[in-house]
TrEMBL record, chain A:
<dbReference type="Pfam" id="PF24656">
    <property type="entry name" value="CEPT76_peptidase"/>
</dbReference>
<keyword id="KW-0966">Cell projection</keyword>
<dbReference type="InterPro" id="IPR038765">
    <property type="entry name" value="Papain-like_cys_pep_sf"/>
</dbReference>
<feature type="region of interest" description="Disordered">
    <location>
        <begin position="674"/>
        <end position="699"/>
    </location>
</feature>
<keyword id="KW-0969">Cilium</keyword>
<feature type="domain" description="Dynein regulatory complex subunit 7 C-terminal">
    <location>
        <begin position="754"/>
        <end position="861"/>
    </location>
</feature>
<feature type="domain" description="CEP76/DRC7 peptidase-like">
    <location>
        <begin position="290"/>
        <end position="362"/>
    </location>
</feature>
<keyword id="KW-0206">Cytoskeleton</keyword>
<dbReference type="Pfam" id="PF24667">
    <property type="entry name" value="MORN_DRC7"/>
</dbReference>
TrEMBL record, chain B:
<comment type="similarity">
    <text>Belongs to the DRC3 family.</text>
</comment>
<keyword id="KW-0282">Flagellum</keyword>
<dbReference type="InterPro" id="IPR001611">
    <property type="entry name" value="Leu-rich_rpt"/>
</dbReference>
<keyword id="KW-0963">Cytoplasm</keyword>
<protein>
    <recommendedName>
        <fullName>Dynein regulatory complex subunit 3</fullName>
    </recommendedName>
</protein>
<dbReference type="Pfam" id="PF14580">
    <property type="entry name" value="LRR_9"/>
</dbReference>
<keyword id="KW-0206">Cytoskeleton</keyword>
<dbReference type="InterPro" id="IPR050576">
    <property type="entry name" value="Cilia_flagella_integrity"/>
</dbReference>
<keyword id="KW-0969">Cilium</keyword>
Amino acid sequence: MSSEIEQEIIEGEEDVKDQDEENGENDEDENEELAEDIEALKKEMAKIVVEAPTIDVDNSETYDLENFSKSYKEISPKEKLILSFAENFRRQYVHLYRDRKPLFLNPLNECGVEKFVCTTIRPIQLPYQSLYDWDGCGEFVADYLNFVPLEPPTDLPKRLKSPTTVLDEQKGNCFEYSTLLCSFLIGAGYDAYVVNGYATRETCLMDETREICPLMRKKEEKTSSQETKQQRKYAVRPPKDLRSKYEMKQHKRKEDEEATEAEKRRQEEDNRIAELEKPPKDPLFGLRIHSWVLVLANKREVPESFFIEPFTGIAHPVNSVNYLGIESVWNHHNYWVNMQDCSEGVKRLKYDLGDPTLWEYMYPSNEKPQLQIPDDIMNEFDDDDEEEEEIEKHLDMPPSWVDPIRVEEKDFQLRCPQGKKTLLYKKAKLDKYAPYLHRDGLVSRLSVYDDYELNDLLQVKEYYENRIDKLYCRVHNHQNGWVTEQFYEGRQRNLKEHRYKANAPVHETDRVMVFYSQARVDGLLERREKMIDKSTQEMTEQFVDRTDFLYFRSVTFGKRPKKFGPADGKSNPKRPIHKMVEKFKRNEALPANEDMAEVVYNIQEEKITVTYHTENSKISASTREFIKPPNSDEKGATLIMSPEMHTTFQVEPQSKQKKQVEVYEQMVELIASEDASDQKARESEDEVEEILNDRTKEEATSELDISVYDTSRNEKAKKHRKELERLAEEEKMRRQEMELDYLAPFLAQIGDPEQISRQQAYKLKEDCLADLKQRLIDKANLIQARFEKETQELQKKQQWYQQNQVSMQKDDEAEYLAYCGEAMFRIHILELRLNRHKEMAPHKYMALESKIRTDPRLSEYF
Amino acid sequence: MSRLYDTVEPSVVDEEMLQKAVEEQGPKDEAGRLAKAEGIDFAEVTQLRLDFKNILKIDNMWCFTCLTKLQLDNNIIERIEGLDVLVNLTWLDLSFNNIEVIEGLDKLTKLTDLTLYNNRIARIENMDSLVDLHVLSIGNNDLKDLENLTYLRRFKNCKTLNLNGNPFCELEDYKVFVLAYLPHIDYLDYRLVDEASKHSAYEKYQISIEEMLHDERAAQRKLDEQLAKEKEFETHKKAYVEKLNGPYMFDSMYQDDIEGNKLSAMPGVDELLVVYRESFSKICQQIFEFGLIEHEKRVGEIDEFWKAINEAKTENKNMGMVKVNDFIDYKKKLFLDLLQLGEQGQSIAEQRFAEYNDKVAILQDALMGYEMQLVDQLEETVKDFERNMADMVSGFLENVQALISQCRDLENMHHERMMEIAIITLEKVLKNELDDDIPDELRELCVDKDTIVNAVQTSHDLHLLKIDNREDDIVTRINQFMSNMIRDVHDNEEVKRNRQRVSEINNLIDHLRDEIDNLDLQGLNY
């Protein structure tokens, strides 16, 4: 390969030498010379093309040239001009900078035709919303294609397939990835360029095993700006600090020491981990060729320039350590060669493409990016520039030879080739699936491990889409066995999140359920069930925004009593409730001393304790305790209250005592509310069971929800359409039948003449009527025959019955009676039919006669 | 209404009747027994029914200050009276009586439901104070005048109205009239009114309704303007600068000044007056603006002071509550343990008691400690505040006084010039050189030098007096305000609050000690 280039260089040098000799001649001659050079160049290029296949035969894939359009197989005159320019540039470049690597200018396309790289970029905007932003484009390209490494890794590829082929095959090397991505980005309006440069081995081989999975990266927490406390004139002095200052100093010094030690230890740990994670040394470091995309600022409101790695679709800052050097960049307008020093990687490079000292451009054009001069100096130049506006005509890039890129809707949805892709990261693995590919709607699964070899599973996170049960995420933590499921809104009981232990029995174990409290009538936010010890369980519920200010309820259950006796088979006995606690928020409408803050129903000890809210100026709260009277369980019994049943502590020592009546009424109220709470607790238990039942049912039959607009998948819509079609068909057939001619057979008999004579007409009429008569008679006879047959059979059966009446069994008799009934029914029907037929027959006859009379073909004779 | 029971004696609302009614209608059964034992306090009764009692006169209701619902229907009441004390009344039923005039409802501002069904009322009137009326029933009365119904337009909240059975119901356009003039009625005569008929009714009477609306709106606007003006006046008063934004003070000076008015007829005095008026008014305006600014500053200062105080109080309260709640948790646990210990752990129990008592003592100390802290903090803050306010007030007063002395200077200058002009005029009059005719009053004064000088002097004195009065007014008022406020702060914030808190703490500690004693007894018994 290199020999070829050398050969070319030598030949090119000769040409340049020729030019130098003739430098003194006129311009016209020079033009002639140039034309000659171009011819010579063409010949040489033709030579190269002939020789190439011999070397590339191992790697190349041959394509059927029939599938491609004309522009792929031919070089237009403008392209030839461009190519010659490029060749000229290359020769000068090689002459001036001998020790730089060769430029990537005009590789072969899939049809074996040389094309300039700038024209391979085909800016296009596809009609998919996610492709409007750079991250959507990057992700799409990364997902859609499978990657092929450069072979050998330190050389430029010989072939650059067009983006359309790359999309069809769903695979490509880094240059093809970048060209495709650049096409999308330029189409979306970004200032994007394909970069030809050098990168680390990990980047070239798409090895992300040392990267943290992007889904796991913690989002940057926005540091909330602390409101500067208003400088107030009246700041109350904080209480006197009575602690010894000396002691405090000692304490602080000790703490500082400990802190520094901890810091040191942590740093050591970090270093150790970094050492472990460092990749092994790369022998080809700095030589691996790679291609990626550069996006400059200023277009599409991009604040800062950045790189996009096409294999992963992730953005890197311009000083990323992954990239070690840049040779050249190009877009669909122009080609620039990097003149800056890359010994320290890409850190120090400036991306001011208008500055010829940094970037050597290939084609002078009026569209070149302006040199970035600070504004005040620009203003000075403005006046001068306006006068000297001569628009020079420069060569501009021809339009791209690639066909417009198209991606089908279903391919777009399918995304990854075959709909699945697996990516490996540091201590994590990510599987991606296309929606609707899995029966249960799984779209991605992230497995997090504890070690680098991905053996020790820590946690699995699964994401779902389009499930009817609105599940969208499930996290299974393998370390403590907890599973968390998260749902969208719209479920029957507004379940938002469900946490439970994976292997525990379904009912009555630890679990947490979180609900969408705004959609629930009772404002329930969270419900927790917990086993406190073997015999007691606790269920706590938290509420939001309730009108009765309840925000917390907790119910403690005891052990279920053992039931002795016959197995009932009916519902399980409920666990007995031992204690209930309800807490309320402050109701401003009531005075604090009457606003209940906490009510404890101690059912085991038959006590009710009420704690009220504290008033604004007080620090303690009043309490009241009732002992339930013995007959409180009976419904409708009058509760008798004695003064010992009630004790109270009032914060205000001088407040007046409540009257007995009021106290009594309050007790009655509390007992009633205890019943209500009891009922609520039972309802909650039931609800939990129902939810669990629903969940098990849903898991068993996981169905996916297909949108009404999704015509390709929508089975129901398909069926409906098919039904409509079928109906339409039937309708057509029926209409066809109607148009059958009733006279046809008769006309056929007499040979279907054009004109019908009088005699023939009469004959037709007679025939027709006779035929009808015959048919009617036949029908009547048929019905009659059936009728007689039925009556005969019935008679026979009746005789048989009479004979064997005595010796018949009950079943036989029943059978006989049934048969009798049916037979009678049939006979009756037949009789009816016969009668009707007899009635209708003359009508039909007359109808046919009048029809014949009025038939246009025979009417002239009647 | 004539009854079959004409011959029955009319009765009177007396103690016995009320007692019986209250008992009957009070809590029932068990609660009733308890209530009777304790005795029902009339001042706590909220609902009372005195129907079918043949009452002739409403009286003796002065005890029932908490009453919200009162039913006096089916009696023979002829006048609405004696209900002035029942200011909390929301529901009043006076149907099936013999009332002829609506009156005596002036104090019942909270009334929402009023029924005067089946009486002898001929005119709707005297219901101005019932602004919150929602339901009104005046069916079966003697109302004849449809125009009278427009009186009900003012009850914008009244959605239910019953007028059935009145003479004007026979009129053809009764319904249309009602729908047109009373658009906010939703239920007329127990039937829902539909939009269509409302619209058509409205169209019929459109012109006159428009007029009426126009008048009402004008009246409303005037009322609003007046309210706004009054509010503004209030704010000015608070800043002690009312009536200073403009020539009011100047005019008031000259209002009572007879001599001054007479003297103003002198030639050359007109222009002088005009100029004087202007400069005087300017100074007044300055005082006005300055006063408003200072007022704002004072208000801001007071706000900040209160903010700080409240913050400190809440912080302290929270700290206290934390301690109390911790203790209560500890106490609950301890009691549970003790109950479960039973007989065996006698010594342990005793140890626990001692522990408990110690903790109680610690709690008391802590709470008292917090209180003392708060007292300290507040004392300092209050002192600061006092000082600052005093500074502000004195600053304000100084400035105002300076400005007022400017006014005085103006007055003095004016006086001198008046004197000059007076003397010149006098001389002219005496020499009969005056060109114009001077009014008689002035001529009287220009008899001799003394009278005119006296006149000028009196005028001047009067002016000065007015200015002085105004100044004193401002000074006294602001000083009073200051002293009141400081005294209030001291009393409420420092003294009362402290006492309340201390008594609360003591009460709590006593209660806690009692509890352990009670439990103690139970524990030992078992």
